[in-house]
Amino acid sequence: MCELLGLTSSTPVTANLSLPTLAAHGAATGAFPDGWGVGFYEGQDVRLLKDATGAAESDWVQFIANHNLRSRLVIAHTRHATRGSRSYANAQPFVRELGGRTHIFAHNGDVPGIFDTGAFETGRFTPIGETDSERAFCILLDRLASSWTDRDKPPALRARFQIVSSLAAQLRALGPANFLYSDGDFLFAHAHRRRQSHTGRVEPPGLMLLQRQCHEGEEEVAGQGIAIAGIEQFIVLIASVPLTSEQWEPLGEGELVVASGGRIAARQLPHESSFRVEPSFEPVATG
């Protein structure tokens, strides 16, 4: 399976990623040879860098490590293919325009039934590659499109959450469906099941969460494959496995979490009738 990393911060941070370390840290074999990618939000657009080679073999990885790319919202992915060839089109994250901004998506898991069920037909958005992950992204955007009709008035969080949650529930019925999705305002993280490196079994947790408040002059966040330097700020990190020695929170099976500006905005478990808005959440513009 692949590995995921999502980051949202209250202020732009310099995030230097060691993608080979990220891949090896969560892998039973230590090898993710089939591609990698990372997207840094720049306003409502995304600086996307990805490659079809293994992270350890790609010169682009060194380019990222040598440039202090700053962003409030980052999504990274390392790929071990379960469907689709080793190609640039199949490397994640995937990006598409909707509502005058770039949306980004990365998936960890295997949902092959998405090609065989009428409920997952694509419309306006069509995959370029062959993966079940990209098809899931296209279906999500098709369902979101009716809400993104005015580029100056994005849909309310509740409307976005309900659409993402509904698709996540359908994907869980097909197979492991951990994913990260962002529309530039919010980072959505859906946790399900993944192959655990210590047991080899596919089981929860699918994603891990870390919330951190950093103070000016304090030591940077640093761990397995990630170093974050900034000032006074709030940070939320979501990853397939813990990347630092801090106390990471395992997300529940089927839990959907939304974060923005370095804070948790809302979350919901499958047995809950509606999502919970965190009382401490204060919207912060991304970019």
Approximately how much helix is present in the residues? 10-25%
Apparent shape? globular
Major sheet description: 9 strands, antiparallel
Summed over residues and divided by their number, the pLDDT gives a mean of 85
Strand content: 35-45%
Considering the protein shown, what is the CATH homologous superfamily?
Answer: Aminohydrolase, N-terminal nucleophile (Ntn) domain
Order of helices and strands: EHEEHEEEHHEEEEEEEEEEEE
What is the CATH third-level topology name?
Glutamine Phosphoribosylpyrophosphate, subunit 1, domain 1
Number of beta strands? 18
Number of domains: 1
Tell me the number of helical segments per DSSP (H or I, 4 or more residues long): 4
Give start-end ranges of low-pLDDT stretches: none
Distance between the termini: 30 Å
Text of the CATH class: Alpha Beta
Oligomer: single chain
- Corresponding CATH architecture: 4-Layer Sandwich
Verbal overview:
The chain is α+β, with helices and mostly antiparallel strands. It has one domain (3-277): 4-Layer Sandwich (Glutamine Phosphoribosylpyrophosphate, subunit 1, domain 1). 16% of the residues lie in helices and 36% in strands. It has helices at 19-26, 59-66, 132-144, 157-172, and strands at residues 3-17, 36-42, 45-51, 70-78, 94-98, 101-109, 177-182, 187-190, 194-195, 202-203, 208-214, 221-223, 226-229, 233-239, 249-250, 256-260, 263-268, 276-277. Strand 16 and strand 17 (263-268) form a beta hairpin. It is globular and about 55 Å long. 48% of the residues are buried. The mean pLDDT is 85.
